[in-house]
Amino acid sequence: MNPVSRPRLVVLHFVVFALLAGLGFRVWYVQVRSGAADAALASAERVRQVIQPSVRGPILDDVGAPMVNSRPALVISVAMPTLWKQSDGGASELRRLAVLLHVRRRTMLREVRLCTARVSKPCWPGSPYQPIPVAERVPARIALELLEEHRSYPGITAAVQPVTHYEQPISTDLAQVLGYLQPITASELKTEGLPVTGFSGVDLVGQAGLELQYDRQLRGVPGEKKLAVDAAGQVTGMVSQIRPRAGDYLVTSINAAVQRDTETALAGAVQRSQAAGNPVSSGGAAVVLSTTGRVIAMASYPTYNPSVWTGGISEAEFRRLFGTAHGEPVLNRASQGEYAPGSTWKVTSVAAAVAAGYSLYGSYDCPAALSIGGRSYANDGNPSLGPMSFYTALVVSCDTVFYDLAYSIWQRDHPGANVVTSPRAPIQEMQKMELAWGFGRDTGIDLPAENPGGVPTRKWLYYLWKDNAHVGQDWCKYGRANGSYVQQIEWDDCRYGNVWTPGQAVIAAIGQGYVTVTPLQLARAYVALANGGTLYSPRIGEALISPGGKVVRRIAPPVVGHLPAAKTTLAYIRHALAGVITSGTAAGTFGGFPLGRVCVAGKTGTAEVSGTLATSVFAFAPTFSPVT
Fold first, then answer.
1. Which burial class, exposed, middle or buried, applies to 572 when counting CB atoms under 10 A from its CB (0-12, 13-18, 19+)?
2. How confident is the model at residue 238 (pLDDT cuts 50, 70, 90)?
3. How far apart (Å, rounded) are the C-alpha atoms in residues 214 and 226?
4. How far apart are CA 101 and CA 25, in angstroms?
5. CA 276 to chain CA mean position, Å
6. What is the spatial distance between Cα 31 and Cα 26, in angstroms, rounded to a whole number?
7. How much is the mean pLDDT over the chain?
8. Segment holding 182, helix H or strand E
């Protein structure tokens, strides 16, 4: 052997030995050191988790008839991740699907577009990896064609799924109360801990109304099935199974017949107002409560058919529901609409006057007009009617009686606090009574959204002035002493906007000015008047019942207060409101009504609101407190 080549051979032997040693170590590491972990991983990969959807519980009326329920239907869904992998992003497949379903290609593309900051609704708000339903209740022949031609439609699935069904006409009459469902968003998945099932009908959550308020109970609990599969993906057995639990049934106190009559009467009244020249966008609301706080009917006009939410809503339908041009039908005006109550408010003023020491049986002058603070306040165009009792003042709705009472109370009600410099300024005497009747705050009804209305107190006035004198509307910047009407008002508000004036006090006493209420608040106050003074937080839900028929929870309207008025005062007011029906401002409306069988007490109200149409309100209650 050549001596020169000997060192090279030694190096080669060393390299080969090192390679063999490294290979041996790797074999030992794979088979011994990490063998257990790899075996566990291989075992885990042979288990597939399948989420089994639950069926959403129905919403029922007071006799158990469904208003909203679920029915099985054929649903076509699109898996966008599968389409994205195609060379054209799935455009050709969506085009063929649109032809098959007899819809426009543009409509199909809108159905599957994802919600982003730059994409306006309607769009798909759910996970991009969740199958997107594009057609529901499709004919069986279309579903069979898709299944038979699966290779031509790899991103399309057809399956029987539970689909929300709205019973008519009750669901349209009650649309805003029932609410609607929308796909689960990423934030809802995180906060609620919800699994994505891949089934369109159950990957939905309540977004408004009762559907949102009782979403957890109605939704139920999805099941879970773990399947063992082999390397080829074939199922070899079941590892474990947790069956889904269907959602509870929500029984409500809504009476379908009363709801239908209420909606019909409300729609007729608004349409007659529109025919008289009021804008098409004008609307209204009506509420029927029992004297124990249960909601028997709640109507809002204009309304809409909630079936538009099923299977995806079009852009035109979305604009119509949420746009003011059509009256914003999605808004529940009964609990969210704020209106000046007008003379229906005078029941609180009588109670406040009696609490302030005025005799319930005294005599009070009703002149044609009063001059207060340098301004004349007229009796709504009526002549002087002379001295009268509170009974007659309510029956004929004499404004000047209540102007004078409010002014007299204002004069001695902490006059040094009328220039409001702190939110801790004392509440006025009349406003204490109004707040105690439940106004100016939420009723606590079992709906997810309501507005509190407004009772103008000194504290409220302080924040109004603070937020608008030099910021907000900036009265001091834009006001002009000799400018337009609005500029003159702003100029005056800049200088005196934090002063509780006698004019504000007297206007508030007849339910005008800054006073606003929701129809629900007004109905609740008249319920308290009817039942002797108990103020309830209204409830629509009556009970939650399991699919097996067991009562899960009974829902009772809680008592949240009592009117600070003697029962004799409340009985006197009810008696006066009965006179409104028989001989007062509502006598014409109730002509021919069987008052001998159904004794009714009520109050009419009309309020002029600056910059808007006048509001017309009517509140009524039984003359004598009934049992229910």
1. buried
2. confident
3. 30
4. 61
5. 31
6. 8
7. 85
8. strand 181-183
Of 49-58, 65-74, 234-243, the range with the lowest mean pLDDT is: 234-243
Whether 389 and 575 have beta carbons less than 8 Å apart is answered as: no
Copy the structure tokens of residue 240: 């474990």
pLDDT value at 323 more than 90: no
What is the sign of the dihedral through the CA atoms of 362, 363, 368 and 371?
Answer: negative
Query: What's the alpha-carbon Rg for the chain, to the nearest Å?
Result: 34
Least confident of 222-236, 335-349, 494-508, 557-571: 222-236
DSSP code, position 389: -
DSSP string across 511-557: T-TT-BB-HHHHHHHHHHHHHTSEEE--BSEEEEE-TTS-EEEE--P
Residue matched to tokens 């002493």: 481
Residue 461 — φ and ψ, nearest 5°? Answer: -65, -40
> What is d(CA 201, CA 268) in angstroms, rounded to the nearest whole number?
36
Decide: residue 550, CB within 10 A, 0-12 exposed, 13-18 middle, 19+ buried.
exposed
**pLDDT single digits (tens) 103-123:** 888 878 877 888 777 777 667
> What 3-state DSSP class applies to 364?
strand
Number of CB atoms found within 10 A of residue 426's CB:
13
In this predicted structure, the answer to whether residue 628 has a pLDDT above a threshold of 50 is no
Strands 249-252 and 59-60: parallel
